[in-house]
Design goal:
Blueprint (H helix, E strand, L loop, with lengths): L3 H27 L2 H22 L3 H6 L1 H49 L5 H7 L1
């Protein structure tokens, strides 16, 4: 059975992870990739801390409804961040694809650009 100190410690760790997930989301929205790298390193350390604390107490944690609910909130926050990051990645890939298509079109006409006369030039010649 979990002691009240264990429950409070785990709640604190879960809440810290929830806050860190929120900070990561904000940094991702701002495209602040340097900060995200630090936050992800902090998140990994925190997850290691949680896992090492949870491992010997797995069965007791399963019996605590409040801890399970809080843990599920953490899982949902993680899923939302992953979903958001994937949407950013997809949008970036679409943009890159568009840029690459534009480059291909430009490259197809680039050699002839210097040889083209505008309609104004043609009218002046007559």
């Amino acid at each position: 059975m979990l002691q009240s100190e264990d429950i409070e410690y785990l709640k604190m760790l879960y809440n810290e992870l929830l806050n860190l997930n929120a900070q990561i989301r904000i940094s991702a929205e701002k495209r602040d990739f340097e900060t995200i790298q630090t936050q992800i390193a902090d998140k990994d350390k925190l997850i290691d801390k949680i896992i090492s604390f949870e491992t010997p107490r797995k069965e007791d944690i399963k019996d605590d409804f409040a801890l399970i609910n809080l843990r599920n909130k953490v899982v949902e926050a993680e899923k939302e961040n992953i979903k958001y990051i994937n949407s950013v990645k997809d949008d970036t890939q679409k943009e890159m694809s568009s840029i690459n298509k534009t480059k291909k079109i430009y490259n197809a006409y680039e050699p002839a650009i210097n040889d083209v006369q505008s309609t104004i030039d043609i009218q002046d010649v007559e």
